[in-house]
From TrEMBL:
Name of the protein this chain belongs to: Uncharacterized protein
Record organism: Chrysochromulina tobinii
């Protein structure tokens, strides 16, 4: 049980493991142990060890765990171990200005983590006197989050509305987490290198702990739910070939796919697995910076957002919720659980509730 709270269970999707270590099953760990012992499913060599050693040890460990929303030390460790790249607001503004001035046939894409210019970001943690923002959004296509850069323009406007300073910091997944190479040199851009072994480890660490980015009280979340048209993506050699329908094994249906940009994402924000998880965490924590934005209000009223783990699991079981990678659902299953788990209730053997603002 402690492993479920502190580490990633790599085979969590196995049926036998899922039965005992799903998020809903872990909401009351002390009672779960007692029920397992009483039913005979949990075997203990010395019966008295359950109440004398195991449960007291579990409750002591849980009592030391600070809720994610208030866990400054845990957030700091997450950012440093994942080598998060926090983009300086000033760099985002300079990119938007350069994008507006570019030549008509010039391709200018927002850079991924490995290509961020020196001095354009903070690695690990920004300075204490800098505000921190995290962007929740769905990628426009498989190979780049915003080929048209429309999302970066929207982000700059949201940061202006939030009165962000040039030296404040922004988490944007593509530019903050180490990425795999997405496309070759067909756009006339330098080739992208693979992630190193160390960078891959940082990426996996970040995925498992991503609830911290969208639930920690020291971060304000900017939600950018708008879809982008593939017709606005940069053209190749003066032409823009239309995507063609192709069967997706992940989604089990035909989807549009571009030879250059990969799968084209046309699923609304509220029906995307990662987006729904991020929005649920941020909404519950009360840290959405642009909640009053009309497009964000539409998302807010698009579905009944969860208030507890059971409601979250029901939302994730909704057939309308889609993922772009088969393994993503295993990561997302624990995001709301890790944010909402009430340790003080758990250590007294009572059902746990969700942390609010």
């Amino acid at each position: 049980m402690l492993a479920a709270f502190c580490q990633r269970i790599v085979n969590s999707s196995d049926p036998e493991v899922k039965e005992h270590f799903s998020a809903s099953a872990l909401m009351n760990p002390v009672q779960r142990l007692r029920e397992g012992y009483q039913s005979g499913k949990l075997r203990i060599t010395i019966d008295s060890d359950l109440e004398g050693i195991i449960i007291p040890g579990l409750t002591r460990s849980l009592a030391r765990m600070v809720p994610v929303r208030k866990d400054d030390s845990g957030f700091r460790a997450f950012c440093i171990q994942s080598r998060i790249g926090w983009i300086k607001v000033g760099f985002i503004r300079r990119f938007v200005s350069a994008h507006q001035r570019r030549a008509q046939d010039e391709v200018l894409l927002f850079p991924r983590r490995q290509e961020l210019p020196r001095g354009s970001f903070y690695e690990g943690m920004p300075p204490e006197n800098r505000r921190r923002f995290a962007v929740s959004h769905g990628w426009a296509c498989e190979n780049h989050p915003t080929p048209s850069s429309e999302r970066i323009h929207r982000l700059a406007l949201a940061l202006k509305t939030a009165h962000a300073d040039d030296d404040d910091a922004v988490f944007l997944d593509y530019a903050s987490l180490f990425q795999n190479p997405r496309f070759g040199t067909r756009l006339g851009l330098p080739p992208q290198r693979d992630r190193t072994a160390g960078e891959s480890k940082c990426f996996r660490t970040a995925l498992f702990e991503m609830s911290r980015m969208f639930a920690f009280g020291g971060v304000k979340v900017i939600v950018l739910p708008q879809l982008e048209r593939w017709q606005d993506f940069p053209a190749v050699l003066g032409s823009q070939n239309a995507p063609v329908p192709e069967f997706s094994e992940v989604k089990n249906r035909a989807c549009e796919k571009s030879d250059l940009w990969g799968w084209i994402n046309a699923v609304p924000y509220e029906n995307r697995g990662w987006c729904a998880a991020e929005f649920s965490c941020a909404l519950k924590a009360g840290i959405i910076a642009n909640l009053e934005d009309p497009d964000v209000q539409r998302v807010l009223h698009a579905r009944a957002w969860p208030q507890n783990v059971d409601e979250y699991q029901k939302m994730m079981d909704d057939p309308a919720i889609e993922f772009t990678d088969k393994g993503d659902s295993d990561f997302v299953a624990y995001l709301f659980f890790k944010m909402s788990f009430d340790l003080s209730a758990a250590q007294h053997g009572q059902p746990s509730g969700a942390h609010g603002p």
